[in-house]
Amino acid sequence: DVIGVRLAGSCVDTQKPKTNPFVSISDEPETLYKRVSLLVKGHDKAVLDSYEYFAVLAAQELGISIEKVHNPPKKIERLTLLKSVHIYKKHRVQYEMRTHYMCLELKYLTSSTAAVYLEYVQRNLPEGVAMEVKKTKIEKIPEHIKQPVWDTLPQVEETEVKS
Amino acid sequence: MVMAVAAGRWAALSQAAAAPRLRAAALSSAVPAVSGREGQPREASTRRRGRTPQFVRSQAPPRTERMAVDQDWTSVYPTAAAFKPASVPLPIRMGYPVKRGVPPSKEGNLELIKIPNFLHLTPPAIKKHCAALKDFCTEWPSALDSDEKCEQHFPIETETTDYVSAGTSIRNPKARVVTLRVKLSKLNLDEHAKKKLIKLVGERYCKDTDILTITTDRCPLRRQNYDYGIHLLTVLYHESWKTEMWESEKSEEDMEEYIWENSRSQKNALDTLLRIKASENVSNVTEEELLASDLVNDYRNSVIALKNEGETENNMSRYKESVKKLLNVKA
Fold this sequence. Notes:
The complex is a heterodimer. Chain A is of the alpha+beta class. Helix content of chain A is about 20%, strand content about 35%. Chain A is built from three helices and five strands. Chain A has helices at about 45-60, 110-125, 150, and strands at about 30-40, 65-70, 75-80, 90-110, 130-140. The termini of chain A are far apart. By secondary structure, chain B is of the alpha+beta class. Chain B is elongated. Chain A: Keywords: Mitochondrion, Ribonucleoprotein, Ribosomal protein. Chain A: InterPro entries: Ribosomal_uS10, Ribosomal_uS10_dom, Ribosomal_uS10_dom_sf, Ribosomal_uS10m.
């Protein structure tokens, strides 16, 4: 029977998970982020499109669930200035600044995953592009709000308070 | 004669030995349509033609010619770098074309160098980076897979914003704003405490979603603002549980919803019914009996519905029916 025979000399990697020497695990509990929303602003739409492809692929590779990717409408800021240094009020020149937006909403991240993803994505932010990150952290009600304080304190002799 | 020929030859020699600028000048004068710009390169080439190529750099073939199709691109562009036309084996053209021409090629193209390129972030490069970063990520707890479960176990939501932009300073004063949101149904409050809290908080409470929103930005640091927000929540909670002496003077105008007991509507209804009974000479019916009767109950419910929910078709018809029954008016 060939099936049950183990080939001599073959090394089987049994319980030996590769531990990354750079990873350190701490005891404090992770903060949970229900939603992390990235708003990327730039002057060039092509740059933002490439960045969107990069950010979406990075999120998929790291196992982060993407809720929505959308492009809010662009904002154009226009100004009209005098064309000449002195007089000639009737001749003006107009400039405009276009800001394109790209919004990426991610769901359900832990603090370590969020830190890793945001640092990766922010280090590769192209020049001339700005980003705003809105993080929504969820947490339990703190201990001191579960009950009014005077219910939990031990019974103390009440002194007469002058009203 | 010989002198003239010699002079002519000398003139010719001097012309040739002297700067070809004379020849260029002659050429330009001969062809007046040629602009000054085209004259310069011709001058350099003509200058070099007679000289040894001391300063002519040997043009090495660009790296692209030695690149295999299946090479490892991540080693060509490992980090963000400017566009190098000799390192990118793509025939890219960029720029506005001249009339009846094509966009300029990649050699010496400033437009290609100016724009940020993503040559260091090709899909295989991203996959490599993410594979290395995956060890540092942790998994989301699988028990919290929906928004309702998150809300049930973790009712308080804290929203903070970070800003990244290029500039002289990395700080942004808007980054210290902290917004706390909590649903009042998750807090341990009784009826009186909830009404008092809503009165204390005013605009920050939304009735439709039952969410209290506290936005703090009065402290200079984000952590301080978060602590202040939690402190505000604690103070509001404890104040709403306390009952002050002057709260007993709460009048009808302060009530959030309509209460029928001890209101004008109840007095009027009872008054009317007593007078009806008196006119019919029925034995004295007490107020408690009247209050407990179905007619009055019906009337009470319809009035409460009208006042609290507003005027809808349903409520108005209910009120009509109850009044008709009360006054024994047959339609």
